[in-house]
Amino acid sequence: MISRGTLKPAQKAFNHLRNDHEIMLDSTSTVQPCFEDDKSIPQQQFHFRPISDIEGMENNSVVDVIGVVSSISPSSSIMRKNGTETQKRTLQLKDMSGRSVELTLWGNFCNAEGQTLQNMCDSGIFPVLAVKSGRVNDFNGKSVGTISTSQLFIEPDFPEAQKLKTWFENDGKSTPAISISRETSMVRTDVRKTISQIKDEKLGTSEKPDWITVSATLTFVKVDNFCYTACPIMIGDRQCNKKVTNNGDGKWRCDRCDQSVDECDYRYILQMQIQDHTGLTWVTAFQESGEDIMGISAKDLYYLKYEEQDDEKFAELVRSILFTKFLFKLKVKEETFSDEQRVKSTVVKAEKVNLQTETRYLLDLIAKFKEEDSGVLPPKIENIISTSGLSTGGFGTGSRESVPPAMNYSGTSSNVTRDSGVPASQTNSYSNQYGGSRFPSAGSSGMYMSCSSCGGTGHNSANCPSLMNGPGQSYGGGFGNKAIPGSGVGGASGECFKCHQSGHWARDCPGTSNVPPAYGSSNVTPGRYGMTPKQHVGGF
């Protein structure tokens, strides 16, 4: 309940509300809390404007805006013109107008709502954010910043928020947005890099720092000077944190504040070495990130080492974090040390690797690589005959270039098949055991044998159509050729040894069928010694 106020026309230059009047309070005015809920008082009202409309607004205009947080940067400290330090955090808002804008959070908004938004974005959630009374800035395009009267609502239960969320899940996530903040100072730390890429890609050497995420193992920590003495004096809403020196009288002096205090604070300045599969590098972790890594405040660790002098417990605590895998969010920037340019990596945030999240990331990465490789066709291979399962002088599977068939007259392994007509499955034990034929034996599962005479398939040289009834070629010969290659039993020429004509065997030679029996043969038709006529041995 407000009473004894003065009602006057609103000064629009200083009042961004839509009301035509304002109430001025003086020393006689009273303000009394009302604990009973009066439903006649309207709830918070919003006048949301599309992000595309902000582009045409004047500088310092106050606006209500709602959008999806598509990206967010870590909180950072900046120095004001009056010498005070404050926190700053930037994020990107996009909406259905096809535009995006940079929103800057100042002061306590960074560590309260800002940290909540950071955690949600790191978890893969893109929250809806409603901003009440943000101020438009026209520096570097148009951007929106918080002021003391601003209010932030994360995932509000508004009709506008539900509509925006549905749009983002269906189309907005993949729809590109044009930023109205021309040269945004937005930084991203979700770009995954390896340690070797810091040097190979010359990160940090441009005007602005590079913000990256590295999955690495902590391998070394410098335990000397792991913290510094800091000023505890509050300047505005922030602690000074500048280094203080001991006066020698038990008090600590801050040159920046020009004051002395009875007790100082302790803040981390950890020098560490991290390593991944590509290399290693030095990084520096300050207060918040140092606590994330060590799991204990710098002040408690200092007292453990120097006041309690419990070296064993101190060493055990340090050993417990070594060889632990973290996701380090790094700020990489080239700085000057003693007139020498060096690239410095500062840990903005460190969190232990979540195996479930990391596995999902790696699976998505593998799927992405498969998509990129799916369009690549294997090289075209011509005139290749697979020799899987065949023994051709090597081990395992392989392939060879096909060669034109050649006639082998030397009685080597090729002739075992050509001359004896043994099926390919039975010649395997001989084909590579003798001679130097260029044709591997067949007979393994799923393989075919090409004819060494004509190069065709579906038959071997024993029943090759091009050799059937051809002069000078064998027809399948004597039994010796089937048992032992090159045994010499049975003809290899295919000619009758009596008349030297082809087309018949010697026993059927027409030139000897009417010859009278030899002396002492007992009327036995000439043939093998001691054998009766027409008695065939070994296929004769």
UniProtKB/TrEMBL annotation:
Residues 402-435 are annotated as: Disordered. PROSITE patterns: ZF_CCHC. Keywords: DNA replication, DNA-binding, Metal-binding, Nucleus, Zinc, Zinc-finger. CDD domains: RPA1_DBD_B (cd04475), RPA1_DBD_C (cd04476). The keyword DNA-binding applies. It comes from the Eukaryota. Residues 451-466, 496-510 form the CCHC-type domain. NCBIfam families: rpa1. Heterotrimer of RPA1, RPA2 and RPA3 (canonical replication protein A complex). This is Replication protein A subunit.
